[in-house]
Amino acid sequence: MHVLTWHRGIEMLDVCIKGESFGKHSHDAFAIGMIEGGVGGNFVRGSKEVLPACTVSLMNPDEPHTGYAVTKSLKYKMLYVSEDELREMLDHQPIKGFQNCVAHDVDGKIRKLFDALAYALSRPKNSGWKISVDTQLTLTLETLMTRYAGLSVRKAGQEVAAVQRVKDYLDSLANSIALSPFELNSKAVSLGDLAKMVGLQPNYLVNVFRAKVGISPYAYWTVRRMASAKAMLLRGISPLDVMFKLGFYDQAHFIKAFKRTTGITPKQILGH
Hints:
Elements: E1 2-3, E2 10-17, E3 21-25, E4 30-37, E5 40-44, E6 47-51, E7 55-59, E8 65-69, E9 74-81, H1 83-89, E10 102-104, H2 109-122, H3 129-148, H4 160-175, H5 181-186, H6 191-198, H7 202-213, H8 217-234, H9 239-245, H10 251-262
Antiparallel strand pairs: 1-2, 2-9, 3-8, 4-7, 4-9, 5-6, 5-8, 7-10
Domain HTH araC/xylS-type: 164-272
Organism: Rhodoferax antarcticus ANT.BR
Pfam families: AraC_binding, HTH_18
């Protein structure tokens, strides 16, 4: 269970159960499940539902239901989001809730979003990891609520000053990489921090930043972080030391991130 402690009531569960069943219960948050393998089932709103792979389970807060595995094993991910936090992340819009309790992920997008969020949560922590998680979380929630709860997303405007302020802040964050990984972790910033800094909501900040810059705030910060890595390498700092200063704890992950941004590996950087 991943508990996002910088939010008020957001958790993600990634689990495989074998024959367990859950009696009638409810959650004090929206409970959204992505069935990945096997077949599950529940009893909700007076009906028995069968949930095969590629099914999305949609439960509103305080909605009584049961849950069980139809097959010997059932693999799924669950995302729990409080109503207050959902409203905070999605531009303070009224949340109508889900009209249907089951939907089919016909294009596979919801599965990809859940997988990407789980991956972001599992990565080693650094000064920007909360931005990575929050960006993916915002995209996931926005997609879920527009598809299944009738949410209308505000069109990105021209908040040039806000975008520039976020860019300047992320530039300064990348330039502070000389700090130790432990100091970087203690200074981890979230998407909500960036949004409050410029007076926007998290999902709207992501949308307006992407419209203006072409990439998300986290992707921009990654590019700037790799630029700092390149500068350190040119100063003669070893790739291993640069890796640790950046907050990476896995050499393969660092090399992949560096090559994805620069097109070469850290050892191919040569100063003359």
